[in-house]
Design brief:
Helix content: 40-55%
Order of helices and strands: HHEEHEEHEEEHHHHEHEEHEEHEE
Bound molecules: adenosine-5'-diphosphate, magnesium ion
Structural class: alpha+beta
CATH topology of one domain: Heat Shock Protein 90
Shape: rod-shaped
Distance between the termini: 80 Å
Radius of gyration: 56 Å
Largest sheet: 5 strands, antiparallel
């Protein structure tokens, strides 16, 4: 079995060249054969006529039988390369110059003779060779004794028995042997060139196949950094490039699937952990209330009920946040954009948090530039983001501190900042605070599930925007994001 592409190509090339060589030899031999016959017939065209006049085979309008016999005898001995036959008008052989045993036919067909005499048919015209039942040869013929008184034909077969076969001819011809060698060398050179070329072409394919094999052996996980020749812009180059990109993509997607799986497991672990704690506490209080309902006085009962209620609130808050984040993370979730004035929204939210801020003795101020442009965004989601940020700021800013909600116009957006003078965020926490369930160290047991900033980040994500944090521990934190200005200023 021929297995490699190179072997297959080479085999095809060898066969092709062999066929070309054979066809060439056959064609040129047969055309040379025809050419020789044509030349012979041209040169010997008048041979029959000349024999008649030179040898005086016709005298006084009649065939001179004795001169004819003499001529036959002479030619049989001296010049056996031609054979002379005397035919009657129907083509029957009357007498001839050959040895009697060798003549196999009694008649020769008249068709070629007429064609020859007619002078219209191109050479070579082949006539019957009386020495054989089926062989045909070039000839010369003339009417005897004369055209006016036709009684028969003098039929001269040219070239007698020489060169009856192609091999005889080739053996004899120096030119033919030479051109045979030339042909063989040309074919051999072509074969060599083809083999080298195929080798060069298949070498790159082989390398590519080897890279693919190794990729497969590695379990489709590790791609070698570079495929040789991948940069060349031919089919093999493109194949290599396409493979490169495909494999790269595959590796990335496999990685992504692994990561996704990992984070999914973490999520489930986190969710169950976060739900279990308040649930267990709630359960404990409820159980105590039930078991000891007779022993508890009013104040204790009230304390237990309040604690149970607080944990149930914490649970439902957490579940609501989880649900909100899940909705936001669904790929089909898109913000419902509308045009609104950011300062108006800010005003509402500041008002909402004002009472709580007053209670904590923290100042909460709106600091919006005059003539702010309108923005295009989902007003409900942006309100949610601001609530999360201000809620955090209130939690982390001690009494006497300040919280600012700042808004200023940029070239094609409005920048919004929530700035506080609270405890700030430790550098170690900074990269993680936007991850879901991430709570700073001091916050481990609080009522807060660590989802607020994850929700804010996701909301800005689906708006095509980003949120940044800036903080020096002890000096407060600043959260910043931008919203796109509305395109048509004529609205509203
Ligand atoms: N204004 C802020 N000042 C200091 N730390 C903050 C501030 N905002 C957020 N953080 C830190 O980021 C963490 C994550 O915040 P968030 O996602 O809102 O969760 P949660 O509010 O439920 O704790 C908080 O636990 C806290 O450690
Ligand atoms: Mg929060």
């Amino acid at each position: 079995m021929v297995r490699t592409l190179y072997a297959k190509l080479s085999l095809v090339l060898v066969l092709l060249l062999a066929v070309i060589g054979l066809v060439y030899v056959f064609l040129s031999l047969s055309s040379a054969h025809y050419y020789l016959q044509e030349v012979d017939q041209r040169l010997g065209h008048d041979l029959a006529k000349n024999l008649v006049s030179d040898r005086k085979l016709v005298e006084a309008g009649r065939i001179n039988q004795s001169a004819m016999k003499k001529t036959f005898m002479e030619y049989m001995v001296i010049n056996p390369s031609i054979e002379i036959y005397l035919l009657d008008l129907k083509g029957k052989i009357l007498s001839y110059s050959a040895e009697p045993g060798k003549v196999k036919r009694n008649t020769v067909s008249l068709e070629p003779i007429r064609a020859f005499l007619g002078g219209q048919t191109p050479y070579p015209i082949l006539g019957d060779d009386p020495r054989s039942h089926d062989r045909r040869k070039v000839f010369s013929v003339t009417v005897v004794p004369s055209l006016e008184n036709p009684q028969g034909y003098l039929y001269v077969v040219l070239r007698g028995e020489r060169y009856d076969t192609v091999e005889d001819f080739i053996k004899d011809s120096y030119a033919w042997r030479l051109s045979g060698w030339a042909l063989a060398s040309a074919l051999l050179a072509g074969l060599l060139a083809g083999l080298i070329l195929f080798h060069l072409l298949t070498r790159r394919l082989n390398r590519l196949a080897a890279v693919m094999d190794r990729f497969r052996q590695n379990g489709f996980t590790r791609l070698e950094p570079h495929i040789p020749g991948a940069g060349q812009n031919d089919e093999i180059g493109r194949l290599g490039l396409a493979f490169d990109q495909m494999a790269q993509r595959m590796v990335e997607q496999l990685e992504a699937v692994k990561n996704l799986d990992q984070s999914r497991r973490e999520l489930i672990a986190n969710v169950s952990h976060d739900l279990r704690t308040p649930m267990a506490i709630l359960h404990g209080y409820l159980e105590t209330l039930k078991l000891k309902s007779n022993e508890l006085d009013g104040a204790e009962r009230d304390r237990y009920l309040t604690a149970a209620l607080r944990n149930s609130e914490r649970l439902s808050h957490l579940v609501a946040e989880l649900f909100e984040l899940a909705k936001l993370e669904a790929p089909e979730t898109k913000p419902i954009r509308e045009t609104f004035h950011p300062a108006e929204l800010a005003q509402d939210i500041v008002q909402k948090f004002q009472i709580k801020a007053d209670q904590q003795h923290v100042s909460l101020d709106l600091d919006a530039e005059k003539n702010l442009p309108f923005v295009d965004a989902d007003i409900g989601l942006i309100a949610r983001t601001l609530e999360n940020l201000i809620g955090n700021a209130l939690r982390f800013t001690p009494a006497g501190g300040h919280i600012y909600l700042k808004m200023m116009a940029e070239s094609d957006s409005v920048q919004i900042q929530v700035k506080d003078t609270g405890c700030g965020i430790p550098a170690a926490d900074l990269p993680h605070i936007f991850e879901r369930f991430y709570r700073g160290n001091r916050q481990q047991d609080s009522n807060h599930g660590g989802l607020g900033l994850a929700i804010a980040k996701r909301i800005l994500d689906i708006h095509g925007s980003t949120i940044h944090v800036d903080s020096t521990p002890g000096n407060g934190a600043t959260f910043t994001f931008c919203l796109p200005q509305t395109q048509s200023l004529s609205r509203r």
